[in-house]
Amino acid sequence: MRIRNIVILCLLLVGVISFGVIQGIVIPQLAENAEEYAEDQLNPLTHDITSVLKYRSKYMGDSGNITKLMASLPLEIETSFQLFPDVFTLEVNYKSSISALDQKHLETSLIYNATAAFSLIANLDAIHFNFEGISYKVKRSDVATWYGVDLSTLTNKETWHELVQSKLTDDDYVFRCMDAIFLKD
């Protein structure tokens, strides 16, 4: 009887210690990791392209899919969307002025978001990014020419990092890309 009580007490002690470790170390670490991942998704230099692959579509006409895709990409500002399916164009209307934004973050996000949208939505031909007082227009053909590849091939994580994401750290590259593929109104 005494051995059985000692075994039960030992098991109880192991259970209490395990509970303490899970509640005090494991769960807070998981929460911290999730918070860090969510923060990384707001920056084009750390965004995980695989998180938006579920929005891949042959057709741009699914407004729910487009809305979720754009909301999952960097540059998190309140927006509204308008689709023009006759001309395969997406209009993203930001409820903010660009003067309120960091210019480098804005430009890298526009490049990143446009490239992601064209890579994932097969028949999307143009995007208009409208801010208060200014608009940026970009065409699929210009983005494809800039990268020199079929845009659908960019969605591989390694290819995306090599051809898109890693280059956004170079200010000269960002300037040349903005100049080459974006028309400012």
Structure write-up:
- The N and C termini lie far apart (86 Å).
- Helix 3 links the parallel strand 2 and strand 3 (126-131).
- The protein is of the alpha+beta class.
- The protein has helices at residues 2-40, 63-72, 103-120, 140-147, 157-165, 171-181, and strands spanning 79-84, 89-94, 126-131, 134-139, 182-184.
- The protein contains 6 helices and 5 strands; from the N terminus they run ααββαββαααβ.
- Helices cover 51% and strands 15% of the residues.
- A 5-stranded mixed beta sheet has the order 1-2-3-4-5.
Short synopsis of the structure:
This protein is an alpha+beta fold. It contains six helices and five strands, in the order H-H-E-E-H-E-E-H-H-H-E.
Keywords:
185 residues; elongated; 5-stranded mixed sheet; 5 strands; single chain; alpha+beta; 6 helices
Structural class: alpha+beta
Rg over alpha carbons:
23 Å
User: What is the rounded distance between the termini?
Assistant: 86 Å
Number of helices: 6
What helical percentage do the residues reach? 40-55%
Name the strands of the widest sheet in spatial order: 1-2-3-4-5
Tell me the major beta sheet.
5 strands, mixed
Overall average residue pLDDT: 87
Order of helices and strands: HHEEHEEHHHE
User: Regions with pLDDT < 50 over 5+ consecutive residues?
Assistant: none
- The tally of beta strands, per DSSP, is 5
- What global shape is seen? elongated
Please state roughly what percent of the residues sit in beta strands, choosing from under 5%, 5-15%, 15-25%, 25-35%, 35-45% or over 45%. Answer: 5-15%
